[in-house]
Design goal:
It is built from 10 helices and no strands. It is mainly alpha-helical.
Length: 161
């Protein structure tokens, strides 16, 4: 299943990331252009601060091929908190930003591995470069996420990691 259900906030952010990383021929498989609305970074930040809809959470779990409990764990979201958020229909700003972080990593891994399935597998598998944790678990902080992005860059360029 593709992540086409992700709303324009995540799609816009990922599209901007893809552009800043230098889109490749497989970029069309990451996002379909017609699904991406154009929003300024300021507008995206404002929407994150207001909180993303819990539908975004569900869509990202589907894109990752994961359960909602797995995704909640990667986001540092307790099951009870997730239940409350789903009831309210919105994530808070911190949770929304974390959701975007995971979507960003999935988009980048898909670019590097040229396959959503390969990206999913790599993100969930323990890696020595991530202190034996999966890249998604290692990315529970922004610094960890940046390290995962650097690792993806090294893999993309054939640098041993």
């Amino acid at each position: 299943m593709t992540h086409m259900k992700l709303n324009s906030v995540i799609a816009t952010y990922v599209a901007g990331l893809r552009e800043s990383l230098g889109a490749r021929k497989n970029a069309a498989s990451v996002l379909r252009e017609e699904a991406v609305s154009v929003e300024s970074p300021t507008a995206v930040i404002a929407r994150i601060r207001r909180g993303l809809a819990t539908d975004e959470f569900t869509s990202l779990a589907e894109w990752l091929g994961s359960t909602e409990d797995e995704l909640a764990g990667w986001l540092g979201l307790a099951r009870a908190t997730l239940h409350r958020r789903k009831k309210a229909g919105m994530l808070d700003a911190t949770e929304s930003e974390r959701l975007i972080r995971v979507a960003r990593l999935m988009a980048r891994a898909t670019e590097v591995f040229e396959s959503e399935e390969s990206a999913r597998s790599w993100l969930k598998r323990p890696a020595m470069a991530c202190a034996g944790e999966s890249p998604l678990a290692f990315a529970d902080t922004e610094i960890g996420a940046r390290e995962v992005e650097f690792l993806l860059g090294r893999l993309e360029h054939g640098v041993p990691s």
